[in-house]
Design brief:
Shape: globular
Distance between the termini: 77 Å
Mean pLDDT: 75
Order of helices and strands: HEEEHH
Number of helices: 3
Oligomer: single chain
Strand content: 5-15%
Length: 129
């Protein structure tokens, strides 16, 4: 009788592996995969993005899309497969367009790293010596 109460007290994070994972691709790109679920035996390739930062933003976008439609990755019908592909394309485009608007550089880092130059201006004879 107390078993149901203890299962509710457990944190949600402790339940298995996260549904998405990253894998390196060619030329420094990163591919996002969704772990198998439902009738799927292999991971679903969601998309390849030019940097890890954009791949993580893509995962956040997919997680929010999946929160609206729980069975997004179950794709039991042709309509479900088409809907999934459309959502993947839309999420990927949204992340890339948002990165362009922010003026992100190719590495996906829009802000300078901490501890870089310390806010000091470069010396006038920087490249000559």
């Amino acid at each position: 009788m107390d078993a149901s109460k203890t299962s509710e007290d457990r944190p949600v994070r402790g339940r298995g592996k996260p549904p998405y994972f990253l894998q390196p691709a060619r030329h420094g790109a990163v591919t996002v995969f969704r772990r198998p679920c439902g009738n799927r035996a292999t991971p679903k390739e969601c998309g390849t993005l030019p940097s890890r930062a954009l791949a993580l933003a893509f995962i956040r976008q997919l997680t929010s899309a999946e929160s609206v439609a729980d069975d997004l990755f179950l794709e039991a019908t042709d309509d479900g497969i088409e809907a999934l592909e459309a959502i993947l394309v839309a999420c990927r485009q949204s992340v890339l367009e948002r990165a362009e608007r922010r003026g992100a550089r190719e590495g996906g880092r829009g802000r300078p790293r901490r501890g870089g130059s310390g806010g000091r201006a470069p010396s006038p004879a920087g490249d000559e010596g």
